[in-house]
Amino acid sequence: MNARSGRNSSKKVVIAPSILSADFSRLGQQIGLVEKAGAQWLHIDVMDGHFVPNITIGPVVVKKIRPFSKLFFDTHLMIDRPDRYWKDFVAAGSDLITFHAESMVKIKSLIKNIKTSGVKCGISIKPKTPVSAIMPYIGMIDLVLVMTVEPGFGGQAFMPEMVSKINQLRGIIDRKNPSCWLQVDGGINNQTGKIVVDAGANAVVAGQSVFGQKDPAAAVKSLFRAVDSRP
């Protein structure tokens, strides 16, 4: 698999460590560790303090780390107006832009604009948002991201009631857009990772269970073994 292709022709599960939980004083080093351990994507959480009650990073961080990693940059915009800022993240080196169905945008127009720019496009839904909210767009996008915690902060507990949503989306994606990734983010560790993969996810985001550990590389390898998808 080409690390920046966004494809996984072997159908193995993609592991996307989230830098939200990384040590920013050693960010380049930690990214290098998970890349060497076999992680295929790097999940980049962007928060504006309005859409979610936290503020994280902007495109300048993406631009600074882009030259040092061949990983697929999976950028998750948890912001009110992704339509105003997505271009900055593409210019900085993002390979995938995921925005929220709950944000203040014209969804169909934004999908078209992002995809026209040459990068991939995903839609995320919060735990309380029903699958029906994104049904009209499943055929247009490259990824659906199911949040299994309320977005905003890392280290939250996995919400098991979201498993049925993952399973429902797996069936819909298989019928309407089989090439679309089904990603899960929130409280992912070895145990919950296996649960969501068994439910149909083929991309998992892991923050604290990777970067919150003493050995992030070992944590990535352990997560791969847990979901039976070691590359």
Written overview of the protein:
- The protein has 231 residues and is an alpha/beta fold.
- The chain has a single domain (14-226), classed as Aldolase class I (TIM Barrel), CATH 3.20.20.
- It is 33% helix and 19% strand.
- It has helices at 27-36, 59-65, 82-92, 107-116, 163-176, 190-199, 208-211, 216-226; strands at 14-17, 41-47, 72-78, 96-100, 120-125, 143-147, 181-185, 203-206.
- The chain has an 8-stranded parallel beta sheet.
- The longest helix is centred in the last third of the chain and has 14 residues, at 163-176.
- It is globular, with a radius of gyration of 16 Å.
- Residues 6-10 have low confidence and may be disordered.
Instruction: Profile the largest sheet.
Output: 8 strands, parallel
Given helix and strand content, the structural type is alpha/beta
Percentage of β-strand residues: 15-25%
Shape, principal axes of CA atoms: globular
What is the CATH topology descriptor?
A: TIM Barrel
Instruction: Let me know the number of strands.
Output: 8
Assigned CATH superfamily: Aldolase class I
Number of separate structural domains? 1
**Backbone CA Rg:** 16 Å
Average pLDDT, rounded to a whole number, is 92
Known CATH architecture: Alpha-Beta Barrel
Strand order of the largest sheet: 1-8-7-6-5-4-3-2
CATH class: Alpha Beta
